[in-house]
Amino acid sequence: MMVNFRLANVLLCDSERSVTQPSLYWRQSRLPRATEKGSVILADPASERYDFATYFNALSSIKWRRYTPIDNVWLHLRVKGSLTLTLTSYSGYKSPKRAELLTRTVRHDEVADLDVEFPSIAGDLLAFEVATASPVELVEAYYYTKVDEALIRPVELAVATTTFKKEEYILPNVELLRREVGGCDEPVAKHFTLHVVDNGRTLDAQGLSEGCVVVHPNPNVGGSGGYARGMIEALRQTPQATHVILMDDDVEVSPESVKRTFNLLSLVRDEYASALLSGAMLSLEQQDMFREDIGHLDENGMFEPVKRKRSVATLREALRLETMRASKVNAYAGWWYCCIPTAVIRRVGLPLPLFIRGDDTEYGIRCDEPFMTMNGICIWHMTFSAKFRANLDRYQVLRNSLIGQATTGAYPGVDFTRAIRIVFGFDLKNFYYDGCELAIRAIEDYLRGPEYLKRVDGAALMAETGKKNEKVVPLDEIDDPRVLRVSFKPEKLKKKKRRNSAQHLYDYVTENGHRLPDFLVSDEPAVTLLQDYAPNKIRNRSCILAVTADGNEGVLREFDRRRAAALERELRRVLAKLDRCGDEVAASWAAAKDELTSVSFWEDYLRRMAR
Question: Domains of the chain by range and CATH?
Answer without folding.
Answer: 2-151 (3.90.550.60), 157-383 (3.90.550.60), 390-561 (no CATH)
